[in-house]
## 1
Amino acid sequence: MDIQGKTVLVIGGWGLVGSAICRRFMNERPNRMIVTSLTKAEATEAVESLRHDYPDAGRDFFIPWWGNIFVREQLKDMPRETVLSSQKFRTMIIEDIVEELSGPVLKRSSLYRLIQKYKPDVVVDCVNSATGIAYQDVFQISRQLISDVKHARSSRKAPPATLFESVERLLCTLYVPQLIRHVQIMYRSMQIAGTGIYVKIGTSGTGGMGLNIPYTHSEERPSRVLLSKSAVAGAHTLLLFLMGRTPDAPITKEIKPTAAIAWKKIAYGEVTRRGKPIELVDCPPSRAVRIDRVLRLRMPGAATPTEQTLKSVYIDTGENGLFSRGEFEAISTPGQMEFVTPEEIAESTIFEIRAGNTGHDIINALDNATLAPTYRAGFMFNSAMESLQQLERDHGVDSVAFEMLGPPRLSKLLYESYLLRLCFGDIRSVTRSDATTMSRRLTDLIEIDDKLRSQIISIGIPILLPDGKSMLRGATIKIPPPRGDETLPVTPKAIDQWAHDGWVDLRQKNMTIWLKRLMDISRMVENLPANETSSRVMHNREYWKNLAEIDPGKICGWIFTYEEKGKRMKA
């Protein structure tokens, strides 16, 4: 992509890598740059620094934005503990990550509003998403929940409020629902805004090291929290791999450094942790604490404040904090994490955006390393189909749908097209009919063919009769999917949705859809030149048997590919 004149969004632009990427973008002459960070202070600092370094860019060129991109707009500026301490806010978080991605869930997202406000052509995401999600520490919250459950079971009283709070905190912290929702919102937001390219600066979670990594966050080696970071990072990569295979998504790339990232500056001064100075305390031998049967992990008053803060020589590694000379030397020595500079990451990022090939795009690497559909499998397809069709003839059955592959919509469409085949024989006969006749003939067949009717409802696919108010069904149905509720309110809108998702629908309005669908296929075939024999057309007259039959599998493949825009993008 030519970056000149484009709107660029750098998510996490205050950080070490984000800052380097913002500066590297300036060589490409974009139109404007939105720079985001978690807090207002960070976003403002980042923009002021860029304005200082590039005074000719104009006052409105760099635009600051701040907030948590993983939550709704209402919560974006609140500390996480403030959110988790409120039942009202916990309920919001749970609704936003557990429920389906509806329009309201999408539109109240802070990330959606950010992208829709500025409609960036290019998005570079430098936020360490894996750290942000995994370091919420589901293990610690689980331990608290287990403790509350044990206490509640041993008590004869009603469960305490703390138990309900612990359950809600755990739901708010579940890694996979948060990550899935984040990627869903990122994709939909960029697709609606017309973003052209998305680059994620990812992580391996361990700085490129293996399970023997010496640096840990607990007594385990490696800790489960650290491995959670790698697990989330890997899951994120696979979700982006899928986004990169989605036709209407932006071009999707990921640069994944496998080393420590350094550095921002080297200095002498106050050493801070999470933005606060480390206050010095003292515990002289005369005030030694005796070690008895119980070790108190927290002991206020054990040490005396000195009214001073820790000052030393340090190297600032951005989001990873300040390291001493010894710490930096230990992790960067050959055979340990070593390190990569943010400028090198920025160079690879810009080169990839400009359609260069650095060899460092993880999504492209996965595309080339995964085992794609093969020529051998394609060659053997016809043989498999012939064997299946021969067995159908031998046993006098038609193999339509079992509802094991899913989704239920596929089974519904297969059986609807199969009913059309039984009633009309071929596509042309359907297109010469009308919706009223189609509905009546399919209903008549369902009424007299006990075996067919039984097969459909026995796999969990109900049959909605033409009145739209009565159905034929078994004990269980696949749609709507069970989500803990035994009953659901019935509305015309709900019936339409359920019928679309997985009910054989005999209503005239559905027959109208089928009529149009088969007319579209007919026009596609009949518009082909009579003597067309080139490789240009895959679904030619021969494929459709010159419209002389209705093949449910082919029809459903066409629906998923063309009507529902579900075509595979990459072989």
## 2
Amino acid sequence: MTRPITRRQVLRGAGGFALALPVLPSLLVGKAHGADPVLARAPRLYWIATNHGGALESAFFPDASPATRSHTLLSDHEVHAGPLRASAESAESGHSALSRILQAPDTLLTDRRIAQLNVLRGIDVPFGLGHHGGGHMGNYAHNESLGGAAAQVQSEPRPTIDQLLAWSPSFYGELEGVRERVLSMGSLPISFGYSNPSTGTGQVQPVRAAASSLELFRRVFAPADAPEAARVPVVDRVLASYHRLRHGSRRLSVNDRRRLDDHMDRIAELQRKLQAEVPAACGGVETPHDDSVLHEGLQPEDGVRYAQLHNEVTAAAFVCGASRIAVLGLGDAQRFASFSGDWHAEVAHYWLEPDRQQLLQRSYREVFSRVFLDMAARLDHEEADGVSYLDNSLLVWSQESGMSTHDPISMPIVTAGSACGALQTGQSIDYRRAGDPQSSFRPLVDSAEMSLGVLHSQLLANLLQALGMPAAEYERWGHPGYGVPRVEPSGVSVPYADHYGDTSSRYFQIASDPLPFLRSAP
């Protein structure tokens, strides 16, 4: 008897295309333990980034009172966690709320969804990045160079973790059916990789992001009637010229030889993608009737539509196996707050002004409700054995800074999904060393006190491990964690060195250790 396809097995998007996908156990990759077949699940990563920060911590983070569990991270540093719970006090009418910002219609922020989320507090970069894009996923060298450690780290670039994963055999063991290693999208450059990624060599440079969701769709889901000429081996067309120039010209400089090798490496990857067959499961995906580039205006509905069209393409690619990594750099969130002026100069830098603070909170509330939770809903469909695509994924939303605009202190991190069970979920986790004079400060005279916590590089290391990458693959320069071992010296407005010490200190030594409450037991 044929089993019917249920609504849970259909993803339908506002862009005008649908993906009908029954679960077919005979086609799933599995491994045997004794006599029982066990699904070999492969995690996915989706990262959303917004500029600035600046939202009051009291507005962003959930009430701390349920955080009754404690763990001694270091002898004088205790961290806390508790269950995420909806609060009627913060909720607007018809909404479910974790905080004034983390709220959404109760049809979206359900008890089930709350149990799939985490909200992390006390995640720091120990030097001032100012404006940056690369810091979200680990390329701290991409900053505006305010001097000190930020200037020094510019000579120590690293690929962002999406690119590290994309070229790692630990993550993509097999590339069959993978059309794009990373779906890079949006207006903010947050993805950085080597110019020769297959060998992990060359310059670290920004990865071009697709502003057009339709362009991205066509790259991933090549139409069945695409001309065969597009699949001609492109490397063969230039290989003879490459060898002649690479090995025959004595005038070719070392740098130009490297550039030529990098170029050929990118062409080889292009050929691999062109020759990769579109996975059979992608056959039900129809071309969308809308494009994100038609929604670049400053009205909230344009912002929502722009992001959701990218979400749709990504969800379809994840579900049918055409990609397992995607990043969306949204940049300024002003379009979500109906503000047409200079968001940076008139809003972000005046985050303590009540009317400006309301704009910031409104914009982030829309991103959480209509972008982040929208993507979570698209993936919350059964993949196999009662486990959803969302359970087998990791969604992350990060901001450029914390409450003090442009200071990377207690940068809010919101996650969804457990990365195939590697992460515990449904928690509000506070990693700050609160109440200690060495770790506490006020960014401005009339602002609330802030406290330092744990290294952002430790969070990235934990996420990499959750996604299957061992420490030996990501650690560099003899230091644990995924980051550059730098600390701003004492004497600055933020007591980085008072709290973190130097690069040989205890916080740096534990930077690859599991973060309490976050990692599941092995």
## 3
Amino acid sequence: MQVTFWGTRGSIAKAGPSTLRYGGNTSCVAVRSDAGTLIVIDCGTGAHGLGRQLMAQAHGAPIDGHILISHTHWDHIQGLPFFAPLFQAGNHWQIYGPSGLGGSLSEILAGQMEYRYFPVAIDELSADVGHHDLVEGTIDIGGVRVDTQYLNHPALTLGYRLEVDGATVVYSSDHEPHDHDLAAGGDVGQNRHDDAHAAFIAGADLLIHDAQYVAAEFGDHVGWGHSTVEYVVDVARRADVARVALYHHDPNRTDEEMDELVALARSHAAASGYRGEVFAAQEGLTIELRGAIHRGGSARPMGGAATSALSPDATSAVVCARSPDIAQALAEVVRAEQLDMIMTSDLYEAFEAVRTNEPGIVLVEAVDDDGGFDLIAAIRELGEPYGADVPLIMIGRASARWHRDADETRITEWLVWPASSFYIRTKLRAWLLRRASRWQNAPPPPDELRRLASLDALGILDTQPEERFDRYTAEISTALDVPIALVSLVDTERQWFKSRRGIDVTETPRDMSLCAHAILEPDVMEVPDTLADSRFAQNPLVIHDPRIRFYAGMPLTLADGSRVGTLCVADIRPRHLDEGQQDTLRRVAALVVDELESGAG
């Protein structure tokens, strides 16, 4: 994989003698696989130079490629009307990016090419150009696996994780720490959203990350949607990233000041124990990646393509707020997103609205008597289909409350008031789009690094089938009368089957794995009907072969407490295990653990 920087600056282009070494063009990175697939990430002003080079090298031959837009702020799309390959007939380009609820990607991009701004409309481009709206998920682009995840930015923004040729590069531009205290550095694992961000970039050979500020500057830019170098280094350390390219440079920063920023980042890395390489992205710099620390097995099938279409039941919102300013702001946001709204200041009325209407999202103001928390806890106790998976957004005046109450009340996200309407709209869109997909990736367990080390120590991954494991999948299949039984080991980015009965594949991506959810709990996880469970309803293993409708998995827990995988069973029809059948699953799983540990190493 080859990665080249064409634009490294953030916010606005800054050409001139003070930015010669690091560059003055805005965001644009080109990635080319060994097979020739070209992916351009963001189309800031740097795309102009890239386009000219592509045209010169092609000598009139067709130029095909793909463009990933992280978000549609100007510094990430202003180069699109000046990207020469889009104006040559015979070229084929596909453009991907996030859209909101109020318009498609093509409509948003067309806005900057209206006649009042630009002489050529987007539908007059000579090349064959397609547009694709994305949410969180996985797609295959010319043999490159691309995973997407929402970033923390005032506009709906996607980060991109690209895997090909045994290497991984992650592009994370325009992202702010969820916990603002982490801007000065600290343990990223203490905040679940920041830790999820680290999980998204885990094990990358190259991380390209927004690092517009240093900690001393962050206080004046909270809510602008950008990171500090201290935060980026700590995320990289948490994620065990090999190399970090500081990116989205502040337009006011000169080359000499960029040198100082890099020195600060390296000093923080040394003090915090991060051993990877830290440098600042420079225009024209090309990096060859060959998978220095990339883990994983053989080529695996890709997950289903993401889609931004909202499901029909995600068109309403329940808003419960007592403070006039918060109530007014939330009402304006919900109306702006064209959602049906039930507005109340009464906790009981809000509860009844959720119970009887099944809204797509619930927004609740935190109040001094903790009534808001009581409402959220009551909604969660409703279970399926009313309150188990509905996004519950809490709005409060102090960020500290999030840390104390999130676990017990299962708040989806905490927003600190005051917040701009645009920022709240972005959060609203993100959670509605996540829910619309009805397919959730399992978060990593808290002990993920230790768990993976224990799994590696077994020395069993990618070994040949063995009768000592096959006898247990045969036994459990017969005992529970199920067509599918597996000894599934959950690796970094895949689940690999040491023993399989009823399916042909030897592994699947981890984000398709039901077992990745099962290892989060110590006991049997049962899903009586996957189509009725929002975590799995659109999982490729459910909607395509083998069309799993029932699942039950017992974690394989080693002596050190690590849950390295599951003994799981599945069926193509909904069903339920009684307590005796669950005990059988537990008993056979314990025998599998004995086999794993007896042959370790």
